[in-house]
Amino acid sequence: MKNKIILSTLILTLISFTSFSQQQEFALTYGKSIGTATYSILRQGFLTGNGSTDLQNNNAIGLRYFRPINDKGKTKIEVGLNYSWGKLKVKPAYTGDPEFDTPWYNDFNLFSLPIYLNHSIGKYFFINYGLLLDYQDAEEVQYTGFGIGTGFGFGAKYSNERYTFFINPKYEKHLFLSEKDGLLEFGILCGIAYKF
User: Fold this and answer.
1) What are phi and psi of 44, to 5 degrees?
2) Sign (positive/negative) of CA torsion 137, 143, 149, 155?
3) pLDDT tens, position by position, for the chain (196 residues)?
4) Which of 112, 93, 143 minimizes the C-alpha distance to 6?
5) Contact criterion met (CB below 8 Å) for 55 and 88
6) How do 37-40 and 52-68 pair as beta strands?
7) CB-CB neighbours of 67 under 10 Å
8) β-pair type (181-195, 104-121)
9) Rounded distance, CA 86 to CA 89, Å?
10) Fewer CB within 10 A of the terminal residue: the chain, N end or C end?
11) Pairing of β 181-195 and β 163-176
């Protein structure tokens, strides 16, 4: 029930942005992490000799909404809803006992609401950056919770009268407040946007 309320709130927030502006765009996106994303205690740094957790086979789908916030349309607000999934590989701290040193896997799900500024650089390039509101769900309680993070990307785009195609390499830092853990992710996001 709690998840349905959160999802409904996020969708209504996106819809409310469409009630005003000039040329707006809606985009469908697909994203993938490059390599493995690192899951760790980010507030205290990486601890030597401690266990580690990596996010593997991470994929993401989402919706993005773009609305110009100045007359020239070079700066836009970019909001969206992303769903990411993958496997958390949990590798415990080394003890010398094979029974306790064996890694295990958890299913991982992450819902993110990016709230970004998107600045065009010329006709074909852009940068985007901002905040991420996150809800993470995994099989184990310590990997489940709400949080806030930051994201930054630099991308390329091609537009015609109705559509924009873009590719957006990105760096995201998700911070889960419930357990002070976080996820560092380098990835790439591809999308197609429809102008209306």
Assistant:
1) -110, 5
2) negative
3) 555 555 566 555 555 544 444 689 999 999 988 765 565 544 444 445 556 667 777 899 999 999 999 777 789 999 999 999 888 777 776 666 666 667 777 788 889 999 999 999 999 999 999 999 988 877 666 667 788 889 999 999 999 989 999 999 999 988 765 555 677 888 899 999 999 8
4) 112
5) yes
6) antiparallel
7) 18
8) unpaired
9) 10
10) N
11) antiparallel
What class, spelled out in words, does domain 2-195 have in CATH? mainly beta
Q: How far apart are alpha carbons 169 and 195 in whole angstroms?
A: 22
Q: Coil, helix or strand for 72?
A: coil
Residue pointed to by tokens 């853990």:
181
At which residue do the structure tokens 């993005």 appear?
Answer: 64
Residues in the chain: 196
**Contact call for residues 78 and 117 (beta carbons, < 8 A):** yes
The conformational region for residue 122 under phi > 0 = left, psi -120 to 50 = alpha, else beta, is left
Terminal C-alpha separation, the chain? 34
DSSP letter for 162, please.
S
User: How many other CB atoms are there within 10 angstroms of residue 41's CB atom?
Assistant: 14
**Can you tell me the distance from the alpha carbon of 36 to that of 55, in angstroms, rounded to the nearest whole number?**
6
Tokens for 72?
A: 């020239």
Residue 67 and residue 88: Cα distance in Å, rounded?
A: 35
Say if residue 45 is exposed, middle or buried (CB neighbours under 10 Å; 0-12, 13-18, 19+).
exposed
